[in-house]
Design goal:
- The complex is a heterodimer of chains A (345) and B (320).
- Chain A has 14 helices and 6 strands.
- With 345 residues, chain A is mainly alpha-helical.
- Chain A has one domain (46-305): ABC transporter involved in vitamin B12 uptake, BtuC.
- In chain A, a hairpin with a 2-residue loop joins strand 1 (31-33) and strand 2 (36-38).
- In chain A, helix 2 (40-63) packs across helix 11 and helix 4 (95-122) packs antiparallel against helix 5 (127-146).
- The longest helix of chain A is centred in the first third of the chain and has 28 residues, at 95-122.
- Chain A is globular and about 60 Å long.
- In chain B, the strands form 2 sheets. In chain B, strands 1-4 form a two-stranded antiparallel ribbon. Chain B has a two-stranded antiparallel sheet with strand order 2-3.
- In chain B, helix 4 runs antiparallel to helix 5 (116-134), helix 7 (164-182) packs across helix 8 (184-194) and helix 7 runs antiparallel to helix 10 (206-232).
- The longest helix of chain B has 29 residues, at 291-319.
- Chains A and B meet through helix 5, helix 11, helix 13 and helix 14 of A and helix 5, helix 9, helix 11 and helix 13 of B.
- Chain A: Pfam families: BPD_transp_2 (PF02653).
């Protein structure tokens, strides 16, 4: 059982929850108030939903041995776009206004994903660099849309996306559930997941095997953009405003962290959506815990850093070998030329 | 005959000249030696950090921790100075911390096979977080040495001046050029970046080179932090946020290949200068907002990457 890939992530999550239970007994209590459920667990799911969405998209991108650094900027751009089109309209609360704004923003986010995909699959630029362009320029574009200010909207219908509730639960949880189910079904019940993994192992080989590796990559980057766009809508609607400068700041890093904690290797070729889900929940629980314990929230960054390092070290074969003693080391490992050299992504 | 490997470098220099000329034609008062000097004054810390980053990228890695390291340096310096530590202890201390930080990251990257991207990302979180552990507020510096360093103007012919930071930055650039092209360390760095496996088979000290590269980058970013402290006269956890991207952009615009093995410190120098010129043009224009800088840098980044791609593919085609 210890060998199971989800064993350690679940242990960490359980450990965090257990700590919370001991530290404050009413952590697990969920109250019913005005027809809505309230409680720390619900909060974790609610506030964690944008991160989970972004991380789902990021998992698939990383599975193709790519990486998408632009998700934070896409979050900022879509939030700005949606808020701008709502604030420009006559009746901010009209259903058609909100629908058009949401659809336009999602379309834009998919286009931004397509742009990344074109650079990576079409021009063959390294993913980290290709998406760096949109990461640098994207925040500028978001500020251009909001004109450098924070756009505030007065639209209860738009606010429903991030702050509304359905069947006593926050609406954003349902968005995440639908996206997660869709991604899992598409990748695990159809051949798409295999295609993605084969592209991640070797694009050329998979093309020779008859897979349209470029199309797969384009689709994956578009999906990632779309996920980031949804996260942008949830974040901006939750606070009814768009901030081009700070919305989605460092989201790319949190998302990558969630994916890595979930056991997906950055070398690509394998991915675990459930692991990502747990990884994102770990990050959100950690943040909540830090707030609750009363440690200054700024220290979250230090804790996150330690977690990243610990996870990376545990994933590293050489590190594990160090602790397992010499038993695992084969004879071949003694020759420097036989040592594996991993070119970085 | 122009060697193909120099083409990106010439494009970078040409672009800088072009941008400066365009600015001079469009705005009165742009074409002056002092504007050129101001580019150096305002970007000296960027320049220092970018020299370190050039080595890292040439070695085939990447260092995302520079911006946070600069912030951490300003924070440690400011808080120690506030407690009455003398500058001649504080500065060597922060510089050695920078080396230690970079070396640790390098060792992790090499010995545990962690991708440079992830390891330095963790370093970035760590350094930024430590800033806030020290304080979440701005700490101002009123130390006599620091204010002297900030205010001293070195007069140059032509009625212009530069700050001491510029001298430090130019020295670092000169050191970078010397190290890259005239020392064994530099050659090893290019070899490791070109092909790590081959470098290993050739018997080059791959481990030492990689770790030293990150150590050097750590030293450069903490030195950049010291210069930044002179510039801002304060320590703050949000100083230089997102600067790692500016630094990477400068290195790429300077013609260094992100796949490693190819690049020039001189190119990086002009990459920083191009970013500076764009900012100056935008501030001269007045009506353009500062976020245009980021968009223009993004577009330039794209153009240079496509150019490198084009040149790289031609080179491959010639070989085969």
């Amino acid at each position: 059982m210890i060998k199971h890939r989800l064993f350690w992530p679940i242990c960490v999550l359980a450990g965090l929850l257990l700590f919370n239970l001991i530290y404050s007994p009413d952590f697990f209590s969920i109250k019913m108030r005005d027809g809505h459920l309230y409680g720390s667990l619900i909060d974790i799911l609610n506030f964690g939903s944008p991160l989970i969405l972004v991380a789902i998209g990021m998992t698939l991108v990383i599975a193709t041995s790519g990486i998408d650094l632009s998700v934070g900027s896409v979050v900022a751009i879509t939030g700005a776009m949606a808020c701008l089109s709502i604030s420009r309209s006559v009746d901010q609360n009209a259903l058609i206004t909100v629908l058009i704004a949401v659809l336009a923003a999602l379309l834009l986010s998919a286009l931004l994903g397509l742009w990344n995909g074109l650079l990576v699959a079409g021009f063959g630029i390294q993913p980290i660099i290709a998406t760096l362009i949109l990461m640098v320029a994207g925040r500028g574009i978001a500020q251009l849309i909001t004109n450098g200010q924070i756009i505030t909207v007065l639209s209860p219908k738009y606010q429903y996306i991030g702050a509304g509730s359905l069947f006593t639960l926050p609406f954003s949880i349902f968005i995440v559930a639908v996206m997660f189910a869709a991604a899992s079904l598409l990748t695990r019940k159809t051949a798409l997941g295999l295609f993605i993994e084969s592209v991640g192992c070797k694009p050329t080989a998979s093309r020779l095997a008859g897979i349209r590796s470029r199309t797969v990559m384009l689709a994956v980057y578009m999906f990632c953009g779309l996920c980031a766009g949804m996260a942008g809508l949830i974040l901006s609607s939750n606070v009814s405003s768009a901030d081009g400068n700070n919305a989605g700041l460092w989201y790319e890093l949190d998302a990558i962290l969630a994916v890595v904690i979930g056991g997906t290797s950055l070398n690509g070729g394998r991915f675990y959506l459930t692991g990502t889900l747990i990884g994102a929940l770990i990050i959100q629980t950690l943040t909540t815990t830090i707030y609750m314990v009363g440690v200054p929230p700024e220290i979250t960054l230090v804790v996150k850093a330690v977690v990243v390092l610990a996870v990376c070290l545990v994933q590293s074969d050489k590190f594990r070998r160090l602790f397992r003693g010499r038993g695992g080391r084969g004879k071949a490992g003694n020759y420097p030329a036989n040592r594996e050299v991993n070119p970085h992504a | 005959m122009l060697k193909r490997q120099y083409v990106p470098l010439f494009v970078t220099v040409g672009l800088f000249v072009l941008l400066f000329a365009a600015g001079s034609f469009r705005y009165t008062g742009f074409f002056s030696l002092q504007v050129l000097m101001n580019l150096l004054i305002d970007n000296s810390f960027l320049l220092i950090a970018a020299v370190g980053m050039t080595f890292v990228i040439v070695s085939g890695g990447i260092d995302l921790s520079v911006g946070s390291m600069i912030a951490l340096t300003t924070m440690i310096s400011a808080s120690l100075l506030q407690q009455g530590w003398p500058p001649y202890i504080v500065i060597p201390l922060v510089l050695s911390l920078g080396i230690l930080f970079g070396t640790t990251l390098g060792a992790m990257i090499h010995y545990f096979n962690i991708q440079p991207f992830i390891a330095t990302l963790a370093g970035m979180f760590l350094a930024r977080g430590l800033c806030y552990v020290i304080s979440i507020n701005t700490i101002t510096i009123d130390n006599a040495f620091y204010t002297t360093m900030a205010q001293t103007k070195i007069r140059l012919p032509g009625n212009t001046f530069v700050s001491i930071s510029v001298i430090i930055a130019l020295l670092v650039v000169a050191l970078g050029i010397y190290m890259a092209h005239y020392t064994r360390f530099g050659r090893n760095t290019y070899a490791v970046g070109g092909n790590e496996q081959s470098a290993l088979l050739m018997g080059l000290p791959v481990a030492r080179t990689k770790i030293m590269v990150y150590g050097f980058s750590g030293l450069c970013s903490s030195l950049a932090g010291v210069v930044f402290t002179f510039y801002m006269l304060s320590g703050y956890g949000l100083h230089a946020s997102g600067m790692e991207l500016d630094v990477i952009a400068a290195v790429v615009i300077g013609g260094t290949l992100l796949t490693g093995g190819v690049g020039f410190v001189v190119g990086t120098f002009f990459g920083v200068m191009i970013q500076g010129v764009i900012q100056t043009i935008i501030s001269f224009e007045g009506t353009l907002s500062s976020w245009w800088t980021r968009i223009v840098i993004g577009v330039l980044l794209l153009l240079f990457i496509l150019l490198q791609k084009l040149l790289g593919e031609r080179r491959l085609a010639e070989r085969s």
